[in-house]
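Bumping my old thread because nobody answered last time. Still need a sequence for this structure:
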């Protein structure tokens, strides 16, 4: 915005030969914004290392300003869980009292949910801040001074008067970090802190040399007879300061200062599910819109908190086209071709592929495992149903034979055909008694149950090892886009489900330094002249 304002000022100075403004004042803002973007893009091409360093500073500030400590995260999760429990207890008590035709008094309500007591409004406002990022960017200059960026979103309170309602800043309430301002202001502020350090170092050295030193911003003054000496001091102190590993020191400080911080990130989980037609043929992979969730309450609270932090930082997702919990794949996939590519694998001996080494291989393997589980699950159902039917018919026939024995009537040939060979032989031998038939039926049931229990080993469906394939939107954009492409091409049967979580705050590697020799400043006519 500063560049835009400077360009607007310059555009206002452009006049024609008659002294009239060339550019319409109503269009200056749009023109200046367009030129500012072009200027910064050109500077990025001309000064690659400088642009990369600025990007590193921007990204580091963004992560810091959206982070929170491990202890604060744990306390926030506990606080949210306790609030849910208190709310549930209160709802249950109100429901029970209502059923009994009674009402709860204030003391009973406060006992069930203490946060509703005195100071509830202030507590609510403080609790709300737990959903917001509160960590400012801080660093140490070469002088050893700590700099902390103060940018926050002011907390306002509405005050009602007889004439009107007035919004005033509430300085007694903690304020949320302005993450966008923290991010954009860090690179220039960091450079200003280096300039200020250079100025102080130069002033100290001038005092040691007996020179009078004065400055206005980045303009340094002394007596005319001492200008050459001061020029030499300025150069020497500049080179001395910038020979230090300034960026490496900043990165090391960040890693130490924010070592216990957690940062929210967007993750995309690769999931797959299969269903079958009534005739047993595979249906297409399901791509319906559904929300991602977590079974455990703490994980759900953490995911919600991470999402709120990201939204509070005004960050755009920029990948896969939206912020829904699931990006619905509006694509045409040849489900028949996909079904033909599926095969059953041996779940007892399969070696899992590391997604970090082969993302497509791991996703394909996850498809095959899910397909195998679905197929084996259906096989178990079908064979169990067939076994139950077969043994049910045999037991029924044996019971019928028992009834015929009691009536002393011989079984028909048709009934005997429905029995197995051993059962037919026992019937023909006429050595079967009521007692032996009862025992025989019990053995049949035991045999049936044994065969059904053996289906789990014959068609395994359980897979205890982890198959989680989660892709960070921040760190693995290329892999995420590659996986989306493979899904669209019908080479994978799964879908991508978006979620949020906190992860350890880390910083990217520093960009490579340029090849400029800082010692040239000592001899160059363009510096401090």
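Sorry it took so long. Here it is:
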């Amino acid at each position: 915005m500063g560049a835009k304002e400077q360009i607007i000022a310059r555009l206002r100075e452009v006049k024609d030969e008659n002294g009239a403004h060339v550019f319409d004042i109503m269009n200056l803002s749009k023109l200046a914004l367009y030129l500012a973007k072009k200027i910064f893009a050109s500077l990025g091409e001309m000064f690659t290392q400088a642009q990369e360093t600025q990007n590193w500073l921007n990204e580091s500030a963004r992560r810091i300003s959206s982070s929170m400590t491990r202890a604060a995260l744990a306390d926030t999760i506990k606080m949210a869980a306790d609030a849910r429990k208190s709310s549930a207890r209160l709802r249950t008590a109100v429901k029970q009292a209502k059923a009994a035709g009674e009402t709860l008094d204030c003391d009973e309500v406060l006992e069930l949910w203490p946060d509703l007591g005195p100071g509830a409004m202030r507590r609510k406002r403080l609790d709300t801040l737990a959903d917001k990022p509160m960590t400012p960017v801080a660093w140490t200059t070469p002088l050893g001074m700590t700099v902390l960026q103060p940018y926050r979103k002011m907390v306002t309170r509405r005050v009602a008067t007889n004439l009107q309602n007035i919004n005033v800043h509430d300085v007694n309430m903690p304020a949320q970090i302005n993450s966008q301002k923290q991010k954009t202001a860090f690179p220039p502020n960091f450079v200003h802190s280096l300039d200020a350090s250079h100025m102080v170092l130069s002033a100290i050295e001038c005092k040691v040399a007996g020179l009078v030193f004065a400055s206005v911003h980045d303009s340094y003054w002394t007596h005319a007879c001492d200008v050459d000496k001061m020029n030499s001091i300025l150069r020497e102190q500049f080179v001395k300061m910038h020979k230090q590993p300034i960026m490496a020191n900043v990165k090391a400080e960040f890693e130490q200062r924010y070592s216990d911080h957690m940062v929210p990130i967007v993750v995309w989980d690769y999931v797959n599910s299969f269903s079958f037609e009534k005739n047993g043929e595979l249906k297409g992979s399901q791509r319906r819109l559904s929300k991602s969730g977590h079974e455990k309450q703490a994980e759900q609270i953490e995911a919600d908190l991470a999402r709120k932090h990201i939204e509070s930082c005004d960050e755009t997702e920029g990948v896969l086209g939206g912020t829904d919990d699931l990006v619905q794949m509006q694509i045409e996939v040849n489900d028949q071709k996909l079904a033909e590519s599926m095969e059953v694998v041996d779940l007892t001996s399969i070696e899992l592929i590391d997604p970090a080494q082969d993302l497509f291989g791991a996703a394909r393997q996850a498809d095959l495992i899910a397909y195998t589980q679905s197929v084996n699950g259906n096989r178990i159902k079908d064979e169990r149903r067939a076994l139950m039917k077969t043994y049910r018919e045999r037991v029924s026939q044996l019971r019928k034979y028992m009834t015929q024995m009691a009536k002393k009537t011989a079984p028909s040939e048709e009934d005997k055909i429905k029995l197995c060979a051993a059962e037919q032989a026992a019937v023909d031998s006429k050595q079967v008694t009521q007692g032996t038939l009862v025992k025989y039926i019990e053995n049949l049931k035991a045999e049936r149950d044994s065969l059904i229990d053996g289906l789990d080993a014959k068609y395994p469906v359980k897979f205890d090892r982890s198959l989680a394939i989660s892709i960070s939107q921040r760190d693995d954009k290329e892999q995420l886009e590659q996986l989306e492409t493979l899904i669209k091409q019908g080479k994978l049967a799964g879908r991508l489900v978006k979620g949020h979580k906190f992860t350890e705050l880390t910083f990217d590697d520093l960009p490579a330094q340029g090849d400029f020799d800082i010692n040239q400043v000592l001899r160059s006519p363009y510096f401090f002249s």
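Residues 284-295, 316-334 have pLDDT under 50 and may be disordered. Let me know if any region looks off to you.
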